[in-house]
Design a protein that fits this description.
heterodimer; A: 25 helices; 9% strand; globular; B: alpha+beta; 20 helices; 38% helix; Vanillyl_alc_oxidase_C-sub2 (chain B); alkylglycerone-phosphate synthase activity (chain B)
């Protein structure tokens, strides 16, 4: 069996039942989830006192008291206040309220919400056996309400969710979310020992006692680009700690992949990446909200992945004896082996999310249209691609992506042309069809009355939105694409040369894509395997040869990475030409943006995507990591 | 005065064996009785030959013999518990080979020069197959399992029975002169593969059986010490001391069979260590014969500041440095009063918290043990048939009171067993103090009977293993010590690891995985695990068993537990020694070995 052909579960649409039966009844129905077998029954307020009475907190309070000279009672009070601000107070009534209102909203917004029931079953089992951590991908504000909604629907224990403090800005909404299980963390609390102790102890207490599954976003924030983000390790460290210290036998981590056919925040994200200020929250905002409700956002696919046992992840990688010589409640920096274990695990888990991300045909169509757009632009043509040709190419790409193991939801019982047209219809804001020719909805021409810079930005919004759909498929193609690019850039066909080139590119792009640390050889082998399997490459003893039919594949793949390559190049150029000693981190994005805009307006850059602040930040991070750029203090 | 009165006559005959032809037949008989322990003890299982569990024709469990409180009784609940816990059936038997076929035993590799000189000293010896097999194993599962199947690996080539310290000196001198390997043998109760002959050993292996050195040489009532030969077995030592109104109070679970020398060589621990101390607290003076000569201190002082205590090279040396021949031990007047007791807790967590508090207040009784829920049920299954309707009615009432009235969950509650010792008034006072603490943790006093039965379990558990092995069930116990803050975690994780490993290794039935906190200290506790499973459907059950035990030990170490609290290291746990005592620690032990025994005469290869 081909290891790339992964077996995946079937989906069930949970909205179907909602359309056929009473929402009120659903919201009020009997809810009796299965709990962790070792659960110690306790309330939200008992949790707080358990945290305040924990050894860890006692230790840190005394430590802070010694360092600052403050009385321990004052610090205790401070701690109690912080905990008040942080803690969730999960209430079933609030969840029922959301179950009702969200049912209404979801039915108007989405055609279907598809969930793999087998995954739910596995989750149910996992919850019973060990404390569970839920790790959904994060593409929308909707994610965590959607998660709780689904779990409520299936009678699974409701999670407590780590949320950013920004929600708390909206007083009423914040409290509602708190009552539906959210607990709030300050975005940055750098060296605040007390805060860290409270926060980590709070999460661990909930986890260890099996109070509820703990849910957080490994990516830390919503991905504005639809690419998976480099995982943040703080919370993962915290939830793995009870296992590593032997306080629980195991922790089950369940990656969840949520894919939206159309992301609600689609153009909002593009604007944010381009640095276009948000429209003022006002009546127009309300108007927008109504507009959102009237639109069709297609379907959502939620895939609950295989529960991952932290114990089995750690097998042979971490020496748990390292906690034998110091009392476990004394906070310590994680040792090197633990740090790298957590980091590796985080990447594996993000990869697991990626693998089960459902891709819609539109993702392939958008990739093709983007490439077509740039080729035409270069050739000076302005006409679109014929629908028939687009369909043919989409079918080619469909087959390729399937061979690469993509989780593609392409309805095979419908003629491909219909599949493509219906994708185009759903995303009509991004494409224009005129006389059977399809092109991106990018207004061009000297006749428009708007200022060129404004026009540039409005075009860029469309292109970045489109690119965000292409990005959904990047994890499928990135390894072969890096190889394609490596073959293209290597000085010879020698295997070693190609590998070196691959390794360099992979290293450079490791802030951009999810590439597991230290897995260069595996990634190279996987890429080779895929390209050889699909007949695009041949290997001789020493050389790598592109076959006749391989050229098309390789061209497509390397073109896919072109915008990123150009982005990194232009950032380098900026740093060489414009950067001075006084450039601060804060000034970097505006400055590089200005520089790029100038080049784009002058027609000296092909890809508007390079305007994306995400790309710019990643390239700076990569350059820092590679030692090409240095950070100076002061 | 000869304290070893019961065996001394026969010993006299035995010593004559090589000089008087006329007594040949009688002598043979005598040697048979007293050198061949296998006639009183099982050759392929635990304990006395006359004592065993069996399921009778009605399927009811019986305990045969007359030696124990439970002997001769019917145990009605055991079959149900046994079948329910293991998924075993009394219909499915896996009987042991009844007798040893001597063809299974390899002929001895004899060092003729050594044997000749040994015979000229008059010290009795034998290379009879049964004698050799009996001394070639301890009581690890794999050892007993192999014997039941009639399989015998490398065993000693010759067994020698020294009668006193000087005999041992002679034997060690000869061993050095002729380069033979010596393995000291005391009670044979090792559970660390310590008695296994290293298969790679090519020299003649001599088993040095200390059983004939079993006299109390003197009692010093001024200093409350007794000077005893190291071959004496625990229960015999207590019996003889009791005759003079004294005791050592050292009662390891194996005390019926294990020897004083063995305790010293493995750093043994006794059930009543809270009053009397562990072996290291009891020993005042030790004499050990090594290839370099005899090591001993020049006085019998209670404590010295004279560099590292040389006793600590001897204690725990596991037969790698020499033979312990004589020990001066502390003795105490026999206690006036003994009282058992028990406390039921709603759950294990509360029970551990109570034991911790008792340890903190330093008011632990002679013994305090906390059994988990599974072990509590196990103990209950061993209740003998009740004599009257009234007692069974009372039992029912008690059960009702605890589970219904007090709201204890029968699947979570656990029981602590207690043993108080001392003068009557103090015992009663002490008892009240402990019960008051227990009450703070939700503990309910549950009677003397439950307590006593708890302690009985320790003595019969090894017999029960033999019963299990008759019905496709294998198991073992192992122990560790752990800081207080880790006790709950280690209990939970090791038990869960055992269950998971069994599942992963293809065991078809869920195993019994249970533990008890069996000793308390200021800074931690000793935890004992029992683990057993039904091996039907497995092609190599012993290998599976060993893998699971290995994993369980790794789990213990990962949870901050020790490699061993009192069983020792032997060869079974050698692989973890380096991480346990560090490279330098290993180097220290090795350099001691190199100095004391450069030719590796004491070649059992235990410990390092």
């Amino acid at each position: 069996i081909d290891p790339m052909l992964k077996k995946r579960d079937d989906f069930e649409d949970i909205l179907e039942e909602r359309r056929n039966s009473s929402d009120l009844k659903y919201a009020l129905r009997c809810y009796t989830p299965v709990l962790y077998k070792g659960v110690t029954p306790c309330t939200s307020s008992m949790l707080k006192s358990m945290v305040l009475q924990s050894d860890q907190l006692h230790y840190v309070i005394n430590q802070v008291s010694k360092e600052t000279g403050k009385a321990t009672d004052d610090i205790k009070e401070e701690a109690s206040a912080i905990l008040e601000e942080m803690a969730q107070c999960l209430q079933l009534s609030t969840v029922r309220f959301f179950a009702f209102t969200l049912s209404k909203a979801f039915k108007t917004l989405f055609r279907s919400i598809c969930v793999n029931e087998d995954g739910i079953q596995r989750l149910q089992q996992a919850i019973q056996e060990h404390p569970v951590v839920l790790l959904p991908s994060h593409r929308s504000y909707m994610d965590f309400l959607l998660m709780s909604y689904i779990l409520y629907t299936y009678d699974v224990a409701l999670p407590v969710i780590a949320a950013g403090m920004d929600f708390m800005g909206m007083k009423f909404v914040g409290e509602m979310l708190r009552m539906s299980g959210a607990f709030f963390i300050r975005r940055s609390f750098g060296g605040d020992k007390l805060y860290w102790a409270l926060f980590s102890e709070y999460v661990k207490t909930m986890l260890k006692n099996g109070f509820a599954p703990v849910e957080f976003f490994l990516e830390g924030t919503r991905s504005r680009t639809s690419k998976s983000l480099t995982p943040k390790l703080g919370l993962l460290n915290i939830v793995m700690d009870p296992f590593l210290k032997g306080e629980v036998f195991d922790v089950n981590v369940v990656p969840v992949s949520i894919s939206y056919e159309r992301v609600l925040e689609e153009t909002l994200y593009a604007r944010e990446l381009l640095g276009i200020p948000k429209p003022k929250e006002s009546t127009s905002g309300l108007f927008k909200a109504r507009k959102i409700l009237s639109e069709d956002y297609g379907s959502i696919h939620v895939y609950f992945g295989q529960p991952v046992s932290v114990r089995s992840l750690a097998q042979g990688k971490v020496n748990r004896c390292q906690f034998n010589l110091v009392p476990r409640h004394i906070p310590r920096r994680p040792s090197e082996d633990i740090a790298s274990f957590v980091n590796d695990s985080a990447y594996r888990l993000v990869r697991a999310q990626e693998e089960n991300m459902v891709l819609k045909p539109w993702v392939l169509v958008a990739s093709l249209l983007l490439q077509y757009h740039h080729q035409n632009q270069a050739a000076g043509q302005k006409r679109g691609i014929a629908l028939g040709e687009l369909t043919a190419q989409a079918v080619w790409l469909r087959d390729l992506s399937r061979q690469y193991g993509a989780f593609l939801h392409w309805p095979d019982h419908i003629p491909p042309s219909e599949v493509v047209s219906s994708s185009l219809t759903l995303h009509r804001g991004l494409v224009r069809i005129c006389e059977d020719k399809v092109q991106l909805a990018v207004e061009q021409g000297p006749h428009s009355s708007v200022a060129p810079e404004e026009e540039l930005l409005s075009q860029a919004v469309i292109l970045l939105s489109c690119a965000s759909y292409r990005n959904q498929a990047l994890h499928v193609f990135v390894r072969p694409a890096l190889l394609a690019l490596a073959i293209h850039t290597a000085s010879s066909n020698q295997k070693q040369e190609v590998f070196n080139s691959f390794s360099f590119l992979r290293n450079m792009f490791s802030n951009e894509f999810i590439l597991c640390p230290g897995a260069t050889v595996q990634d190279f082998e996987e890429a080779c395997y895929l390209l050889v399997k699909t007949g695009a490459l041949q290997f001789t003893q020493q050389e790598v040869l592109v076959t006749e039919r391989g050229h098309r594949t390789l061209a497509f793949l390397s073109t896919m990475l072109d915008p990123f390559l150009q982005g990194y190049q232009v950032v380098c150029r900026f740093l060489c030409e414009e950067a001075t000693e006084t450039l601060t981190e804060k000034q970097f994005i505006p400055a590089v943006r200005k520089f790029i805009k100038k080049l784009l307006l002058a027609g000296r850059l092909r890809y508007m995507e390079v305007l994306s602040s995400d790309l710019q930040k990643n390239s700076l991070a990569a350059l820092l990591r590679l030692g090409a750029v240095r950070k100076m203090k002061g | 005065m000869n304290y070893g009165s019961s065996v001394s006559g026969e010993r006299l005959f035995a010593e004559c064996k090589y000089s008087t032809q006329a007594l040949h037949i009688i002598l043979n008989l005598c040697q048979y009785l007293f050198f061949h322990r296998q006639e009183i003890l099982k050759w392929n299982g635990w304990g006395y030959s006359d004592t065993r569990f069996l399921f009778n024709k009605k399927g009811q469990a019986e305990f045969t013999g007359k030696r124990y409180r439970l002997s001769g009784m019917i145990i009605p609940a055991l079959q149900n518990w046994f079948e329910g816990t293991f998924g075993a059936s009394v219909q499915h038997k896996s009987p042991a080979m009844p007798i040893l076929t001597s063809s299974a035993v390899q002929p001895p590799t004899l060092n003729e020069a050594f044997v000749d000189e040994l015979k000229s000293t008059g010290i009795p010896c034998s290379h009879d197959a049964e004698d050799r097999v009996f001394r070639g194993h301890g009581h690890c599962l794999h050892e007993v399992f192999a014997l039941r199947e009639g399989k015998v690996g490398r065993v000693p080539d010759i067994v020698v029975w020294p009668n006193c310290h000087n005999d041992v000196v002679k034997i060690v001198e000869l061993a050095c002169k002729h380069n033979v390997c010596l393995i000291p043998y005391g009670g044979g109760t090792s559970v660390s593969s310590a008695l296994e002959c290293p298969p790679e050993e090519t020299r003649c292996i001599v088993s040095l059986d200390t059983s004939q050195m079993n006299r109390i040489l003197w009692i010093d009532e001024k200093n409350l010490t007794a000077h005893v030969e190291a071959g004496i077995v625990g229960q015999e030592l207590e019996r003889l001391l009791n005759e003079s109104g004294y005791c050592t109070g050292h009662e390891p679970d194996s005390m019926e069979f294990s020897s004083l020398g063995g305790w010293v060589a493995t750093r043994a621990s006794g059930m009543k260590k809270n009053i009397y101390g562990n072996i290291e607290d009891l020993v005042v003076h030790v004499k050990m014969v090594t290839p370099q000569g005899v090591i001993e201190k020049g006085c019998q002082c209670p404590r010295m500041s004279t560099g590292p205590d040389i006793h600590h090279f001897i204690m725990g040396s596991e037969g790698t440095l020499g033979v312990v021949t004589e020990v001066t031990m502390k003795i105490r007047p026999m206690p006036e009063y003994q009282k058992y007791g028990s406390v039921v807790f709603p759950n294990f967590e509360q029970g551990v918290a109570c034991l911790r508090e008792v340890a903190k207040q330093r008011c632990a009784p002679a013994s305090i043990r906390l059994m988990d829920n599974e072990q509590f049920k196990f103990g209950h299954a061993l209740k003998p048939q009740v004599s009257s309707i009234f007692t069974s009615f009372l039992d029912g009432l008690k059960k009702f009171y605890i589970t219904k009235f007090k709201g204890f969950d029968p699947d979570r509650l656990c029981v602590a067993t207690l043993l108080f010792e001392g003068d009557r008034e103090k015992v009663l006072q002490h008892e009240k103090q402990v019960y008051d603490i227990a009450a703070k943790f939700g503990g309910l006093a549950a009677g003397e009977d439950n307590g006593q039965r708890g302690y009985m379990l320790t003595f019969v558990i090894a017999y029960l293993r033999d019963l299990g092995m008759d019905y496709y069930v294998i198991g073992e116990s192992f122990e560790t010590s752990v800081p207080w803050d880790r006790v709950l975690d280690i209990c939970r994780n090791v038990k869960a690891r055992i269950i998971q490993e069994c599942k992963d290794k293809g065991v078809q039935f869920s195993p019994l995985s249970t533990c008890r906190v069996t000793q308390t200290y200021d800074a931690g506790a000793c935890v004992y695990f029992y683990f057993a499973f039904n091996y039907r459907g497995l092609s190599d059950p012993v290998h599976v068993y060993e893998q699971v035990e290995h994993a369980a030990r790794e789990e213990i170490l990962a949870n901050g537990g020790s490699l061993s609290h009192h069983h020792g290291v032997g060869k079974l746990r050698k692989e973890w020694m380096r991480e346990t005592i560090s490279d330098v620690g290993m180097g220290m032990l090795k350099s001691v070995k190199n100095y004391v025994d450069p030719k590796n005469i004491f070649g059992n290869r235990n410990l390092i």
